[in-house]
Amino acid sequence: MSETPLIGGLTQAPIDSRLAGARIGVVTFPGTLDDRDAIRAVRLSGATAVELWHADTELAAVDAVIIPGGFSYGDYLRAGAISRFAPLMSKIVDAANSDAKLPVLGICNGFQILTEAHLLPGSMIKNDHLKFLCRDQVLRVENNTSAWTNAYDLGQDITVPLKNQDGQYIADEKTLDALEAEGRVAFRYVGGNPNGSRRDIAGISNAAGNVVGLMPHPEHAVEDGYGPGHTGTDGLGFFTSVLNTLLGGK
Predict the structure, then answer these.
(1) Is 180 a known active-site residue?
(2) 13-22, 83-92, 147-156, 224-233 — which is least confidently predicted?
(3) Is-catalytic flag, 108?
(4) Which of 54, 116, 142, 217 is the catalytic position?
């Protein structure tokens, strides 16, 4: 496919030759909206983007997987509930839980799918104000040791777009206490809670740190001219973080 040229002041970062073989899969479900954006973010980070279809039965030898945002299956039943049973999801679940600990990132609807697949605890329900919300959102990095957050500083504030209507993260108090105690809250909302998520949680990780889910959209903040304020590129750290992990870095 042809690529939209870079605009604004951003030029592609020099590509580390060691990344030439890094393959990041991006899954598309019926109703996925942001797969093209995630693919572009992967390419901007220097890796090779591999398009994956929900009905595939193999992971195409990818080194990591992104489940992007959208409205898979129209959010019927509840967001992510049908996608959880896609043939490819069983492969993703097995690989994420294997000794190899495949890095998996779920963004927005992808986060919903990860909770439905029990790769992450808790669930996502309607925003507490019952409206779709789209705005730039400040997040605080609460964990910078995961496969998808290690390029950030602990406590760093980043700004990425938020767009959801089923964005309220919920879990029982025992689960929430465990997430806090184990340092598995990856991101917290700053400047007001946009959807009623418990304890202002915007994203979490699994215990091993290879699986991360968050509601806001880092793939929309990776390129000057497109991101928040037309200059924000705070989201690119997600994609460089996983490359750090694959290269045996932080």
Answers:
(1) no
(2) 13-22
(3) yes
(4) 217
